[in-house]
Task: inverse folding
């Protein structure tokens, strides 16, 4: 059974600081997604990582994927209050290049950015 | 609005009643997914369709849960004989089958079973 673990689960940051959220998964996959969820809202897609070494950046967020280590990171640069949310990674247990779309999500990392 | 829509947004029901939720995907998307999210957890995959074919349903939580997508457009998720443990947010997502297969989520239906 595919397991996806995020750490930390809770992250309290000061504005302007940098930090990294880690996502480890237990089976071979070349397909990993990052989502953001605001309280009471649905999930917003942030990044799609489709190969080993993939790196994507949007604003203050940068995501990367190391399929050999089965690890993805979400790096936050110079945090601002608007980044406060819950961040999820999700893994597709792809086989043979075919996406099944049956995402397994991590537990989520609750990020709070303080002034 | 061309995003994924779900109806109703909130449903309160008494234990033992049946409930049905509807999901309308983004119009050109051929894949549709159902997930359940409980408080403090990530979404949990339930089932998915490619066009009208249900390709995976082994993850449906029990035989009280069923889903349909009769014409490959909207989908319904039905829970029969609801139990208090069914209280959760039910999320629908859609995607285009392809390299990215990026799933776009709807706003969810929050179910409360009393």
Result:
């Amino acid at each position: 059974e595919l397991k996806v673990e995020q750490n930390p689960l809770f992250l309290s940051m000061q504005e302007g600081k940098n930090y990294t959220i880690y996502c480890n998964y237990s089976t071979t996959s070349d397909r990993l997604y990052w989502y953001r969820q605001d309280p009471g809202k649905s999930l917003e897609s942030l990044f799609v990582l489709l190969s080993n070494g993939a790196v994507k950046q949007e604003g203050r967020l940068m995501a990367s994927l190391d399929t050999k280590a089965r690890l993805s990171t979400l790096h936050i640069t110079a945090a601002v209050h608007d980044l406060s949310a819950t961040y999820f990674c999700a893994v597709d247990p792809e086989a043979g290049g075919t996406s099944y779309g049956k995402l397994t999500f991590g537990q989520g990392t609750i990020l709070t950015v303080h002034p | 609005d061309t995003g994924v829509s779900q109806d109703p947004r909130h449903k309160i029901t008494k234990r033992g009643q049946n409930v049905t939720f509807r999901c309308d995907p983004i119009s050109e998307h051929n894949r549709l997914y159902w997930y359940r999210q409980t408080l403090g957890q990530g979404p949990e995959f339930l089932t998915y369709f490619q066009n009208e074919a249900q390709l995976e349903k082994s993850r449906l939580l029990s035989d009280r849960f069923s889903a349909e997508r009769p014409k490959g457009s909207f989908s319904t998720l039905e829970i029969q004989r609801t139990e208090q443990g069914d209280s959760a947010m039910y999320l629908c997502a859609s995607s285009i089958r392809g390299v990215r297969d990026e799933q776009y989520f709807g706003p969810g239906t929050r179910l409360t079973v009393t």
About this structure: The radius of gyration of chain A is 14 Å.
